[in-house]
## 1
Amino acid sequence: MTEPSQAKVDMEKLVSLCRRRGFIFPSSEIYGGLSSCWDYGPLGVELKRNVKDAWWRAMVQQRDDMVGLDSSILMHHQIWQASGHVEGFSDPLVECKGCHLRFRSDELEGNKCPDCGGELTEPRMFNLMFKTFIGPVEDEASVVYLRPETAQGIFVNFENVLNTTRKRLPFGIAQVGKSFRNEVTTGNFIFRSREFEQMEIEYFVKPGTDKQWFDFWVEERVNWYVSLGIKRENLKLRPHTKEELAHYARECSDINYLFPMGWAELEGIANRGDFDLVQHANSSGKGLSYYDEEAKEHIVPYIIEPSAGVDRTFLALLCDAYDEDEAEGEKRVLLHLHPDLAPIKAAVLPLSKKEPLASFAREIYASLRQQWMVQYDDAQSIGRRYRRQDEIGTPFCVTADFESLEDKQVTIRERDSLRQIRVPIDSLKATLRAKLGGEDLFVLPDGGKIWKE
Ligand code: ATP
């Protein structure tokens, strides 16, 4: 549920920027589109990959209590019985008797159709899982579901991971992957779609230490968003009340973000107790437990689950990065994206298309792209080219001019401050690496000088 509030960017501007610059397209567009499904274009795919890489680096690579997993989307149908999804993963659906639009009754304020004011049907529970069949025979025995969350793939691999990694409690298993939900109400761009990606952690702890680890993960996850440049004032914790806690949860808190349509869930963190391992142990007949060396007994770990959405993080990052200002005498739109996330790290811009400057600049481009996603742009005025890069969040532009041919130096322009330095080509790569890593632009390499304050 969203809670209305005043965000700084409106969704239309973002949707239009995403479309215009190739971040996101509606799915199946030439056939009229497919409701609530989206395609990530050339820049979108880079940003999305950078989000997932940043998460993996911080949550798996840089921690010694975490390992990764990539479980399959199609899984044994009994998993969804044991997890409670077949029985309970549903939303209450009502239909307008007049215009036949459908709504989630828990999201409606009154008992009339919000579109035409017509009378609504009684709510019926609508299961959100997509159902299909495995193999050639379409009968009950061959039913499988597209997973509505990645978490279950982790629970059912608990023993495999434990036996192969010899991890001791507390430790976590992390997974990034697609999930599918046949949502009743969709919309708000990529905020709620029917096919989306999740970044989930199941963190296994000793019972009794669960409260402490729950608090740890809430803080850790908020800090992760802030480390990527999201403003702290645009994030808010929303602890769940006892009444709204899911059946499996002992405690739960959402990390909400101030999206254009209001405060809404970016990530959910839950203390799931031993629910999942007990359910799967009972249903599969396998004892899913952990041998506690100290206590010399088998225990069933409790699980803390920080569950984030890739697409919602993508949207939050865009909302937070979007800005309009004036630069070099012109209005500009810019994305203040963190350098780790920017789809393009640098653009090489020769002042003219003429030789030998073009070959000179192309050589720089060829060298930089060995390391980073870099664009080469020689079309239109330099001002227009800067604007194009600002609008897609490129942190640095490297400009080669006719003097560069003589002094073997180029200028580096910073997106946010518009400051410029001039550096020898020999130290360009090292300088860019340092600036992309957060070093101040005015820390100069040998032979470098300040070009524009
Ligand atoms: P909501 O209340 O918004 O439907 P949820 O509480 O059902 O979300 P969870 O089951 O906790 O969501 O899923 C964890 C995360 O997965 C969410 O915080 C969100 O980032 C992402 N997510 C869930 N459903 C969708 C969806 N339909 N589209 C995009 N992302 C989603």
## 2
Amino acid sequence: MTDTRTVTLIRGDGIGPEVTDAVLTVLDAARAPLVFEEVLVGRRAEQEEGDPLPARALASIQRNRVALKGPVGTPIGKGFQSVNVRLRQTLNLYANLRPVRNVPSIQSRFEGVDLVVVRENTEDLYSGLEHTVVPGVVESLKIITAAASTRIAKFAFDHARQNGRKRVTAVHKANIMKLSDGLFLECVRKVAADYPDIVSDDRIVDAACMDLVLRPERYDVLLLENLYGDIVSDLAAGLVGGLGVVPGANLGTEAAIFEAVHGTAPDIAGQNKANPTALLMSAILMLRHMGLPELADRIERAMLDTLRAGIKTPDVGGTAGTKEFADAIAGRVKS
Ligand code: NAD
């Protein structure tokens, strides 16, 4: 018998609770050996506890080390820092992982896309170090360290090795930013030497973007600093139909948070129209991370079969509601 594991659950805002319920329906049908510890994060936490990311929620993630998270709204122009940025910084979630693959019955201009974007999550131009030098002149600091570059490179090569992938491509602009991107590239090359079974190459970011929209099927694992990673991971999602059909994970040494990369979609919240595919894919990634690959495969097969049968939500050309889509997957998981 498999031991039951506790996972922190954040339903989030907007469509978050609906897509989370859909995922729980499927996990329940699959008899996943998980117990969920629900914590409040986002708008309701802000209203009821005065902080969108209460200490209690952080403590739960630290204790359980694994969390499944729905999208959380970030108030624009208010005092609070983004919950997502706070989670990454506080829990040192240094690696952002986004697998991108064609999904049956989801329209895309490309076939054979099967790549993974690995993005460094803690430094680069996202360090938040900006200041006004004199009025009209602003300086924004790009921080690249050997420690963080080596750590993310090891993560990418380990991920490649553990998942049967053949090649890691570092994406950079070291021809212009010779010191910062040069250091990143130097660290990647040093790490690559320890993985002779994985092919290692690199591309300049602009050329890589053009190539990705011409021949995405040629790429395997992409390894990038924070800013390039942010941009290229959305570009890559667009290759297979958008943010609604790609999962995401933020991983660190102390915890791992699995979440859909789309937002709270306030325009369709509460209407049974939201597509839970991205969050379900993130839950599948979570099960693999937790050492439950067979369960993950079974749920993935049921999800893909459901999509192949043409059962899908309106955003991807279907007519099924969130609940009907989840029930159809749950039915296949059981059988
Ligand atoms: P969004 O992703 O919420 O919505 C963009 C468009 O995509 C909308 O038309 C929406 O209806 C549609 N959409 C998104 N997810 C969908 C789904 N699962 N099914 C069907 N349609 C879907 O982006 P936005 O409008 O820019 O952001 C809204 C809020 O979400 C903001 O407060 C933002 O800060 C927050 N946000 C949170 C996260 C997160 O927590 N990870 C990520 C991005 C945005």
